[in-house]
Amino acid sequence: MRRAGLGEGGPGNYVASGYSAYEEENEHLQEGLRAKVSALKHLSIDIGTEVKYQNKILDDMDSDFDSTGGLLGATIGRVKQLSRGSQTKLLCYMLLFCLFVFTLLYWFIKLR
C-alpha cells in the first residue's frame, strides 16, 4: 500500500508532500531552542557564580560576628570583674563619664 505523497520517485516528491517545509520549520525551531538553551546555560552559570560570591561574603560576615562576639564577651567579663571587686567607685566614675559623653553628644546633635 502506498502513502499519498511519499511514493517512489525523486526529490521532487518531497517538495510536493511538504516534507521540505516541515524540515525547514524544524531546523528553524531547533535553532531557536538552541539559542534559548544557551541563554539558560549562561544564566545558570552566572547565578552559580553569584551564589558562590554571596556565600563567601556570608562566611566573612560570620567570622567577623564571631570575633566581635568574643570581644564583647571579654569586655563584659572585665566589667563584671570590676563590679565584683572593691572597685565600685571606679565603676561609678565610668558610668558617670559615659552619661556625660552621651549628654554632650545629645546636645551637639540637637543644636545642629
Automatic annotation (TrEMBL):
UniProt-listed Gene3D superfamilies: 1.20.5.110
Source organism, top-level taxon: Eukaryota
Protein name as catalogued: BET1 homolog
Family to which this protein belongs: Belongs to the BET1 family.
Species whose genome carries this gene: Oncorhynchus mykiss
TM annotation in the entry: 90-109
Subunit structure of this chain's protein: Interacts with SNARE complex members GOSR2, SEC22B and STX5. Interacts with LMAN1/ERGIC53. Interacts with STX17.
Main location: membrane
GO biological process: protein transport; vesicle-mediated transport
CDD domains listed in its UniProt record: SNARE_Bet1 (cd15853)
Segments forming domain T-SNARE coiled-coil homology: 20-82
Keywords assigned: Coiled coil, Endoplasmic reticulum, ER-Golgi transport, Golgi apparatus, Membrane, Phosphoprotein, Protein transport, Transmembrane, Transmembrane helix, Transport
One cellular component term from this protein's GO annotations in UniProt: endoplasmic reticulum membrane
Mode of membrane association: Single-pass type IV membrane protein; Single-pass membrane protein
Record-linked InterPro entries: BET1_SNARE, T_SNARE_dom
